Amino acid sequence: MGKGILIIIAGVSIIITLMILSLNSNSEQGLNTTAAYFDEMQARLISNSGIEIYLERLRRNKSLTGSFNNNDLMNGEYNVAIWGPDTALNIKSVGSFNNVYHTSLIKARRDAIQMPQITSSLYISASNLNLHLSGNINIDGTDHNMDGTAGPQPPLPGIGVPSGTDSSYVVNDLKPNINNAIIGSGTSPSVYTTPDTTNWEQVTQNMIFAADTTIGTGTYSQGSFGTASNPEITYVNGNVTLSGTLTGYGIMIVNGSITMSGNFSFYGLVIVYGASTITTMTVGNAGIYGSSIFVGQGMDFKAAGNAKFYYSSQAISNAEANLKSSRFRILSWWE
Predict the structure, then answer these.
(1) Model confidence, pTM
(2) Which of 77, 112, 147 is the last residue of a domain?
């Protein structure tokens, strides 16, 4: 009897020992599985974060391509490669964590810049408009190339305004010599009413988001904002004076008042906007080839000297074809 009990106890002990060993083994396997899962998820997170980081860098550096290796992130690292044109952009990111690797590959397309409809050489939209034109200014809706020669497109109005009341005000305010200097489609003075249905806040914010250069209040008289072969989106946040031999190509958005003087020249689209009264002054030989749009609650517009506002389909097309936005469409995401 006693011997039988000892045998049973020994057997039970062996079974319990085996169960404990099995539980320890399962626990260790479970721990290993959990650790491996964590490493895989961390590598994946690092890889996808690399994609996001370089999409943001592409937003600012619009010509960024090549390989960018050994980037540290979250106690791991990632390697990124970027190739392809803006219409079929490829970004590959390989993340690693504790010798576990994860690869993410996206195909994306950079959106084009959305240009507003160009309806005149000079468009003015304001609830309260004060107009002061004098000197030998030229506001010409006839198409010009950027070198001043005749362009291929039909003429637009010299000045466009959103209401018939504004149109009458502009015409009645013109002096005889200025009256003959506003030409374009129709008879002189070429002043036409075009209803303003554009959401200028949305238009300007999309362009500001894609700005290549941002400047603040001040006077700028030398250098250039873009070139004919590499136009830029320039955002001016504040009141600015543009003078001297300064030139610009592309799009300029001014959130504030602007003074253009000297030999300042711009080729493309200039948009000046603001929630309050905007003062726009153009003197000297300053000139804009393309189109100029002034939108504000109030507009105090002064132009004198030999200022030129010339419609140029070439300058606008050059900006539209070569400028890049900072928004992307993800076409596919593989990992």
Answers:
(1) 0.81
(2) 112
